[in-house]
Amino acid sequence: MSQAVTSGAKVSLTGIKPTGEPHLGNLVGAIRPALTLTEAYDSVYFIADYHALTSLRDPKELRQYTRSVAATWLAAGLDPKRTTFYVQSDVPEIFELNWALSCMTAKGLMNRAHAYKAARDKNVEAGEDPDAGVNMGLYNYPILMAVDILIMESDVVPVGRDQLQHVEYAADIAGSFNHVYGKNYTFKVPEAIVPDESRGQTLPGLDGRKMSKSYDNTIPLFLPEKKLLKLVRRIPTDSTPVEEPKDPSTSAPFRILEQFASADHAHVVEDTRKRLEAGGMGWGELKNVLFEVLNTEIAPLRERYDALMEPGSELDTVLAEGAQKARDRAGRVLSQVREAIGLTGVAR
Ligand code: TRP
């Protein structure tokens, strides 16, 4: 296809926390929009395993999810030659900058972070010590995220609404650094890009609420066919009889169909919409259509995914090369920061 987007292009960066198996909602809401951005931006995408460590305690699980998320992005079409794609913990430069920026970040800023405040409020409500179960990783989470963003000189950060505050914190932290050291080095100040949810990029899950691993209502992407069919049958519908006209926009299976289907199946979506509105199409038939479209589109991805998940697959090479590219980029920024703050150039 086209050339790699490199110098001159703006940098788009996002991190994916490996805390579960990828599901349909991730593909529609995060992966596809991020892949579209690779056409216009110098794109940097990574698996945030350090961030996952704030909540995961099982090493096997962490390894499995990290591999699975990486394989999913590649199977979905991420081109590692045109992007910088890596595992966060393969880049020790991130860790070093994390300390430096921790020393320049006000504790009060962390006290006000949404995720930490929510954990405290829950404890207080339950009559527990406010900091019960809160580890320092959770507390410092926004600083590490700022480092992820700043060390790659990111211009834009595509994230869900729940991550907006974190990107604002990254901009704040960059601002504090630039204020003190700006004569020696200035960080680029990043901006968030939030998906336009009015355009319907949130997929309903198995209970009709937004599909999310925190609601435990997801349809995992790479299920065997039979299991996929079983889950599709569980998507809630109302009791409107077959012959009656139906409103597609309030139907969870239709909304999934509409948002998931690629251009190849646009005609199926339109045909289904008309048939529901006209009456005569029941929910059971709609679910069959949904299953067919999902299965047809996912099958080739599933095959690629399964191959990548094999030990010793191409995935290992892709991640090793990605780590090297990421370290080169991060190293250039880190050495300037070290110089700017007085960690290098002492004895000459
Ligand atoms: N905190 C993000 C999440 O929970 C993951 C993440 C880590 C991230 N570092 C990042 C996102 C940097 C954007 C930029 O989903």
Automatic annotation (TrEMBL):
Major localization class: cytoplasm
Annotated motif 'HIGH' region, positions: 18-26
This protein's record includes keyword Cell membrane: no
Compartmental location: Cytoplasm
Residues at which ATP binds: 17-19, 25-26, 160-162, 203, 210-214
Pfam family, any one: tRNA-synt_1b
GO annotation, cellular component aspect: cytosol
Class in the EC hierarchy, top level: ligase
GO molecular function: ATP binding; tryptophan-tRNA ligase activity
Motif residue range(s): 'KMSKS' region: 210-214
InterPro entries: aa-tRNA-synth_I_CS, aa-tRNA-synth_Ic, Rossmann-like_a/b/a_fold, Trp-tRNA-ligase, Trp-tRNA-ligase_bac-type, Trp-tRNA_synthetase
Gene Ontology terms describing biological process: tryptophanyl-tRNA aminoacylation
Function: Catalyzes the attachment of tryptophan to tRNA(Trp).
NCBIfam families in alphabetical order: PRK12556.1, trpS
Stated name of the protein: Tryptophan--tRNA ligase
Organism of derivation: Prauserella isguenensis
